[in-house]
Amino acid sequence: MPDLHEKNLDDQKDISKEMLSSLIYAEQIQKALLPDNQMFKQHFPDSFVIFRPRDIIGGDFYWIACKPPYKFIAVADCTGHGVPGALMSIMGISFLNEIMASNHSFLAGSILNILREKVMKALNQKGEDTDLKDGMDFSLCIFNSENHELQFSGANHQLYIISNNELKSIKGDRMPIGVNAIEESSFRTHKVKMNLNDKLYLFSDGYVDQFGGNNDRKFMYKRFRKMFLKNASYKMEKQKKNILLEFETWKKDFPQVDDIIITGIDFSETMFSSG
Q1: Before 69, cis peptide (omega within 30)?
Q2: Full-model pTM
Q3: DSSP code for 179
Q4: How confident is the model at residue 11 (pLDDT cuts 50, 70, 90)?
Q5: Distance between CA atoms of residues 223 and 38, nearest Å
């Protein structure tokens, strides 16, 4: 007769295998919803994407769309990691696609307002203390390839623009896509004129929150900005390799603490000329 303890161990192994198999399949579904490399390069020819969930699946995602002369790119950091975060990311991608299909407003702040309404309705958030506090931090950029104007709206997110070897940070609003501790107000739309060879970076906070280095501390934003400035003269693929290498060097044997997403776009001649 088999030992009860051994049987329990075997059952746990079977459950673990089944869960791992389900997570790997969920990873394939999540990746299928994200823009593939060919699509990304079509709309943003000189660019890179670093997408690195903490677990097999995660809550960070990126999204792009094109309605000439406008190009849209978004980066989001959803509440939670693993399965909960991934479910939020799938919901966010679905809502963005719905907004693009039915909305004719090309104002970044207005799109974030609509997205927030959809998320709050889906999660049954009514501004009460008992509401689920799930949601997402969010960056949305809209580039007009005719007049070279860039719109930005952010929910607890910022962006970096490097122009003439100087880095400028544009901060979004200090409120999430979802229920807020204070009464919701409209998201602001920032407008910037992009110049030839300017660099744009969107990101979540996973990279800067990573512990490592010689003193077991977080990477932090000051070091983050220096890293982009140091690499700004390189081609985008080289920048991507250097950023990943610096992360591994910093992290050492520490576990990854959060999902990571970083996108970089070089506003080269191809970016201005492509529709």
Answers
A1: yes
A2: 0.90
A3: -
A4: very low
A5: 31
Distance (Å, rounded) from C-alpha 148 to C-alpha 129? 44
Angstrom distance (rounded) from CA 88 to CA 75: 13
The percentage of residues in the chain with a pLDDT greater than 90, rounded to a whole number, is: 64
Identify any residues that bridge with 264 across adjacent strands, giving them in sequence order: 48, 201
Task: Please report, for the chain, the start and end positions of each structural domain, with discontinuous segments joined by +.
Answer: 33-163+171-203+259-273
Q: What are 28's two structure tokens?
A: 């394939």
- CA dist., res. 258 & res. 201, Å (int): 19
**Which CATH architecture is the domain 33-163+171-203+259-273 placed in?**
4-Layer Sandwich (3.60)
C-alpha span between 107 and 187 (Å, rounded): 10
Indicate the residue type of 199: K
How many angstroms separate the CA atoms of 26 and 107, rounded?
Answer: 33
Q: What is the pLDDT of residues 159-214, one digit of tens each?
A: 999 999 999 999 999 999 987 645 568 999 999 999 999 999 999 999 999 999 99
